[in-house]
Amino acid sequence: MKNVKLKICGMKYPENIKEISTLNPDYLGFIFWEKSSRNMNLETIPEIPKSIKKVGVFVNASIQDIISKVNQYQLEIVQLHGNESVNYCRNVKKLGVEVIKVFSIGDKFDFTTIKEYVLFVDYFLFDTKGKLPGGNGITFDWKIVENYPYEKPFFLSGGIGKTEVDAIKDFFKTDAAKKCIAIDVNSRFETKPAYKSEIKLRKFKKLLYENEI
Questions:
Q1: CA dist., res. 150 & res. 119, Å (int)
Q2: Distance, CA of 80 to CA of 155 (rounded, Å)
Q3: Do 80 and 99 form a contact (C-beta atoms < 8 A)?
């Protein structure tokens, strides 16, 4: 598991950002969507270790808004969580950032529908289809990913918490996980929307990486 990266998403409180950054996750995610209870509205992001990549999460935003936020917060990755087109992803990629395109998975998923995105994103992220774009706290059946046919690496998301550690370890023993480079967590570690429990995340990280495979 030592090669699997960790993304902690939905951060917005300055002291909590600093506290969680001491855990040295690979990515911290900041949601720029006004309808979200985790909407990021700070003027700046507190200083965090340079090893942690800052991810801005957007839902059907204008390119101009993304440019503005990338510059304001020095975002290194843009995560697109809406109905963004292939051409839209191509234009975001031109901004000089990495691009994550999210697709939500229900009882089944046809991976041929995302083929055209492969050339214009750096990663996919698969989460659970729910009422909101992310943060729904429920998992999908990871066996569906066995049908993933592309070389493009992906993030696994959707309701991942401490109780999923054994399932995650089992998943990473399968061929389906070969292109999975990161685990994305959010709502299952909150004491309130956007406020993450350092204690719970520390325990999760220890469990995730102990007895490395």
A1: 11
A2: 13
A3: yes
CA dihedral for 163, 169, 174, 180, sign (positive or negative): positive
Cβ-in-10-Å burial (0-12, 13-18, 19+) of 171 comes to middle
Could you tell me which residues come within 8 angstroms of residue 192 by beta carbon, excluding any fewer than 6 positions away?
Answer: none
The alpha carbon torsion through 148, 185, 12, 36 (nearest 10 deg) reads: 60
> If pLDDT is split at 50, 70 and 90, which confidence band does 176 have?
confident
Amino acid at 200: K
**DSSP E strands: which ranges in 46-97?**
53-58, 77-80
Nearest to 40 by CA among 194, 187, 198: 194
Answer for the pair 66, 92: CB distance below 8 angstroms, yes or no: yes
Rounded distance between C-alpha atoms, residue 85 and residue 101, angstroms: 10
Residue 126 β-bridge partners = 103, 156
Alpha-carbon gap, residue 194 to 65, rounded angstroms: 22
Looking at residue 211, its pLDDT comes to 61
Phi, psi of 31, rounded to the nearest 5 degrees: -95, 125
Q: Is the pLDDT of residue 213 over 50?
A: no
Dist. CA 188–CA 193, nearest whole Å: 10
**CA–CA distances in Å: residue 76 to residues 16, 50, 92, 98, 166:** 20, 11, 12, 6, 31
Of 47, 18, 49, 17, which Cα lies nearest the Cα of 30? 17
